[in-house]
Amino acid sequence: MPSVPFHYVDLRTFCYATEDEKRVEQALRTFLPEEYEVERVTNTGFHGDRIVVLSARVDNADDVRHVLSRLTDLPNIDAVIDQLEDRVDDNNSLFLRLDKQAAFRGEVRLGEGLTLRAKVEAYPAKREKAVANAREALEAVRDEAI
């Protein structure tokens, strides 16, 4: 895939008081290139409990390729490609929810716990063009992985 039709990819997860922050960070790092910086913001939950928001923005083309290549490990990547009409919003952002427990084990699954938001390039900035670009990119990384 010579060019990547994404401006950036944001990955975010929450670490609740009952979770080990290092393990939650390890889950997030499943999708990140090595030694990638993870931002931490500490908040307080409704009941006074500590919640740490862990996030990373990937905006370098090679690093975005890395994140996309991890998505090809999804056992249902073809279903995700088929659902792009529902997964790309009117602001040309692609959304996926990923399983935090699976990510901790180094696996890639759809589920709860991790949020991936990828801003899709589209000229002109129309949703239909963004869906087509996202489809082309995901199919390309899927085909490279085969």
TrEMBL record:
Signal sequence residues: none
Pfam families cross-referenced by the UniProt entry: RNA_binding
InterPro entries for the chain: PAB1135-like (IPR002739), Ribosomal_uL5_dom_sf (IPR022803)
Highest taxon listed in the record's lineage: Archaea
Name by which UniProt lists this protein: RNA-binding protein
